[in-house]
Amino acid sequence: MPDALADNRIALDEPSLDFRHLSSEELQEHLDILTETMQELRRAGLTVWVHPEMWTEVHCLDGIDLATFLFTPEASSVNRDTLRLLARLLDRCPSWQEDEPGYVSSVTITSADDQGGDGREMVLDLGFSLGVLLHQDRRMACLTFGPSRRGIWTLSDKGVSRQAYFFGAFPELCRFWRWLYTAEDIQEDDFFTLAGHAFPALEFHPALKFGAFVGSYFQLRDTVVRILGVLNDHFAEVMAQHSGLPHQVQAALGAHGVNLSPESPRIRGSDKLMAQRTVTFNGDSYVCEWHAKLAPDRNRIHFSLPDQRLDGKILIGIFTEHLDT
Questions:
Q1: Where would you tag: which of 16, 235, 258, 271 has the fewest CB atoms within 10 A of its CB?
Q2: Cα(112)–Cα(132) distance, rounded to whole angstroms?
Q3: What secondary structure does DSSP assign to 163-231, as a single string?
Q4: 259-275 burial, b for 16+ CB within 10 Å, e for fewer?
Q5: Are 285 and 279 in contact (CB under 8 A)?
Q6: pLDDT tens, residue by residue, 57-110
Q7: Could you tell me where the DSSP H helices lie in the chain?
Q8: In angstroms, rounded to a whole number, what is the distance separating the alpha carbons of residues 292 and 204?
């Protein structure tokens, strides 16, 4: 589902399309990951931008450019269906305009955790896409191929620097959207617009409001993002691993820094109290008795168990200071 916040945020990291040091098996594996990732991005309504001259300017093997590799099957041992699929996916990608500001012959890339300079890398010959990202006035993501850079890196050229997020598989991209909350200081009105991308395993009740908490949005936003990230990434898996046993689930999620629990037997035995923990979503009722605590004495996020009515997603049903006990 495309939206103004998420649209036009992703570019292909063409310099990573270097196959010279990969075995045939490794190359096939990484090309399969790339094609699957590009298909998932399309299904999510997300666009990948490419260099307009990448077909001839990217040399993925010695003496073999990308076009030759994809359209001359004898140039490699890769499955022909994979080559055809990748060619079709790349051909559907929009390219930067020729007059787009930002072409540079080289870009210096530095990892976010680089302390002594060992994380610096100079990308030569094809600086167009990375150069355009360098001159964008917002954070961008770069789809990279194979065992290449990942996470947040800084792009630099002639005194201009920007951060970009590099990812190689679709599930990694949700961390980019979460990073945007602080990196671009996302405002309250846009929090849930971005949430569908940042937390794809969660559904959000339309009545959720930060005003139901004690404290301002900007005081609470990063804590909420962290908790939702843990629920998205781990809750369903931990529930299955521990057969839903509350104490074991609490301990496992506690290791990720989240304090959560289901309601006590006393509360579950009260129809009145449980009614406060039940919400209607798309015409169905969901019990949100599990809750994560933003603070020991206040501010709760109530949510359901993974539910097949939501394609296995978790419904985030209630933001509240504290429900009656």
A1: 271
A2: 20
A3: EEEEESSGGGHHHHHHHHHHHTT--GGGHHHHHHHH-TTEEE-TT--GGGSSS-HHHHHHHHHHHHHHI
A4: ebbbbeeebeeeeebbe
A5: yes
A6: 888 999 899 999 999 877 778 899 999 999 999 999 998 775 666 556 667 788
A7: 24-43, 54-57, 66-71, 80-91, 128-134, 173-183, 191-198, 217-230, 236-241, 246-254, 265-268, 271-276
A8: 15
- Listed by start position, the domains of the chain span 10-171, 199-320
Which residue is associated with the tokens 């300017």? 57
Helix (H) or strand (E) holding 11: strand 10-12
Q: Tell me the C-alpha distance between 20 and 38, whole Å.
A: 22
Q: CB neighbours of 259 closer than 8 A, spacing ≥ 6?
A: 292, 293, 296
Residue with tokens 């006035």: 137
Neighbours of 72 (CB within 10 A): 11
- The span from the CA of 27 to the CA of 123, in Å, is 21
Of the CA atoms within 13 Å of residue 8, those in its CB half-sphere come to: 9
> Residue ranges of the alpha helices (H) in 210-311?
217-230, 236-241, 246-254, 265-268, 271-276
Closest C-alpha among 139, 141, 314 to residue 233: 314
pLDDT at 165: 93
Which bin fits 215, alpha (ψ -120 to 50), beta or left (φ > 0)? left
The size of the chain, in residues, is 325
Which residue has 């961008």 as its token pair?
A: 140
